[in-house]
Amino acid sequence: MSFTSSFETASLTRLHWVGIVLAVITGVVHLVFGALAIDTLQGVSFVLAGVAFFVAVLLLLLDYRRRLLYLVGIPFTGVQVVLYFYLNWPNVLSPGGIGDKVVQVALIAILVVLYRRET
Question: How far is the C-alpha of 21 from the C-alpha of 108, rounded, in Å?
Answer without folding.
Answer: 13
